[in-house]
Amino acid sequence: MQNTAKTALVIGAGPAGIEAALKIGQAGYSVILIEKEKQIGGMVGKLCSSFPRWENPQEMLDLKTRELGKFLSNITLLTNTTLKFCEPVEKGYLVILEDSDKELNVKVDAVVLATGFDLFDASVYGEYGYGIYPGVMDALEFENQLKDWSAHKSQTEAPGAIAFFKCVGSRDRSKGNPYCSKICCMYTAKQAGLVKELFPETKCYVFYMDYRSAGKGYEEFVRSVIEEKHVHYIRGRASKVLPQNNRLLVRAEDTLMGIPIEVEVDKVVLATGVIPRKETARLVEAFGINTDQYGFIESEFGSPAKAGKRVFFAGGCNFAIELPGAQYQGAAAAAEVINLFYQDEQEER
Amino acid sequence: MALDSCTNYSLQEEIQRNCDVNLDTCYECGKCSGGCSNGHIFDFTPRKIIQLIKLGQENTLLHMDALWICVACNICWDRCPSSINIPRIMDYLREKAHQQGITATRPQVETFHRLMLDSIYKRGRVAEVPMMIQYNLAIGNLFNESGMAARMLLKGKLRPVLTSVKQIQTVRQMFNNPKKKEG
Questions:
Q1: Residue in chain A nearest B4 by alpha carbon
Q2: Assembly ipTM
Q3: pLDDT tens across B117-145, in order?
Q4: Which end of chain A is more exposed for a tag (fewer CB within 10 A), N or C?
């Protein structure tokens, strides 16, 4: 029944990689799923909640871990493992995988890159004081803060006010990132909403150019945060953070009125944009595939998930993507791999 | 424009409570202002008025010219994608300005409001011709708009004599207890 002659290598065990590995494994082919970190989950494992349904990402990861467990005969999960070397051979690649103490030589018939994205380094913005004022944090640090607050709510003194700055490292030509990072509008709404859920008295200000909420349930999600949780959206990019009265003074323009405004807050959360991972660049070179000018993997014309000869991609290595989108792409890459393996078998028969 | 930087949300809460609106639902799209009958001469258009409320700029709001040139045509409310009752907000601000004894930027408009309310209080209705005469006397320009009045009168558009409604006491209840009708 099972055909395990064909093997796919999936690089990165975030939501996209897990989905790809699961689907390929469930179709009866062998999969090696490698992850450079100790734990699977990628970016999702670091998040406190999800949009647009306020679901716990950990529960989703637990579900996927259980599913992976059911297909262990097909799917080999290797954590702490990276790709050391690869060499194209006929209908596949010879790869060397390495973890801390050993190497594994294996021939794979297809590769799925699911290496994810990184966040923009907010310290590039001197005016925001990231790395200088302790109250200024980037989006992932704040997810961690939210996890901590949720776990120790009773011992936590509610902050008086928090400001969220959108488009930090996105839509900024001067920083070399003219693109919209797509997910920040949604995760900022989520983070501000979570703060109001934990501490209803805390004032939340979101400084925005516009908010982008194209997705099923997304617009309603943002509106509910504004209208029901009373997060204050102020149109205008915050321009400066200064220390004042042991707090942080935020200066911006209310562009709807054309007047300068100032607000004193306890924390500033920078909605840092999405950039390609450095590790992806190395893999791009190794597999000889194309990227755009920023370093995100480009698809071949006409294919949703193909990047090169027997190389496919899914998730954040292609561009900023939210959790469900990463899963769609993982499934799409798996479909391409399964199709390719099926074609191979037809030829071999 | 020398407005104080302000992030006080108590004015927004006060107006939401009294006017049965939720200003957080504002999309900031400007459709209210695009359609506004007198928007071209407003110092602050309806969209900006909502924003001023959010910024707690009470002083600016109570002294603005728009308060007295808004004709309460309801177009802003009708077109608002969030159905925010802006005319009610304008009423509330006018009432508040009046209560605080703030001089209207357009005294004639305030005079007109007062005469109209007087007429309703006394007779339960307004008749255009006596009202116009009263108004013209009050502003000291007896022949104000008289040419148009004559043409309208000939076409039967103006009520020449003022009669009283039968149940004037019912009308006066509105003046005694303006909160009552809101239930």
A1: A261
A2: 0.75
A3: 999 999 999 888 889 999 999 999 989 98
A4: N
Helix (H) or strand (E) holding A9: strand A7-11
Which two tokens mark A52? Answer: 């647009």
Q: What is the CATH number of domain A3-116+277-348?
A: 3.50.50.60
HSE on the CB side for B61, CA within 13 Å? 25
Residue A179 tokens read as: 């693109």
How many whole angstroms separate alpha carbon B33 and alpha carbon B27?
Answer: 13
Q: Which residue of B has its CA nearest to A251?
A: B5
Domain endpoint, select from B75, B99, B123: B99
Query: Residue written as tokens 């919209």?
Result: A180
Whole domain around residue B118: which residue ranges? 107-176
| Pair (B91, B21) in one structural domain | yes
Instruction: Give residue A217's region: left, alpha or beta (phi > 0; psi -120 to 50).
Output: left
Q: Residue B156 carries which DSSP code?
A: T
DSSP A27: T
Contacts of B150 (CB under 8 A, 6+ apart): none
Chain mean position to CA B149: 23
Domain boundary among B99, B133, B167: B99
Fold classification of A120-274 is FAD/NAD(P)-binding domain (3.50.50)
- Amino acid at the residue A4: T
With CB atoms and an 8 Å threshold, state whether B55 touches A259: yes
Tokens 């935020």 locate to: A250
Task: Please tell me the least confidently modeled range out of A37-46, A53-62, A295-304, B123-132.
Answer: B123-132
Question: Does B7 contact A at CB distance below 8 Å?
Answer: yes
pTM for the model: 0.86
